Amino acid sequence: MAFFSIIVPIYNVELYLRECIDSLIHQSFKDIEIILINDGSTDSSGAIAEEYARKDPRIHLINQENQGLSMARNAGLSHCSKSKGGGEYIIFVDSDDYLALDACERLHEILKDQPIEVLHYEILNKRQGYRDLPTTQTPISGQEYLLKHPHCIGHGCVWLHALRKDFIIRHNLSFIPSILHEDMVFIAEILLHAKSILFTSLELYYYRIREGSIMNSKPTKERILQALTSYYIIAQNFIHLAEMTQAPQLKKIFLIQIYTYFLHSLFYSGLNPKFLYISYKNFSPLFSYLPTKERLKIPIHAFFYFFKSLVNRFKALILRF
Question: pTM score, two decimals?
Answer without folding.
Answer: 0.89
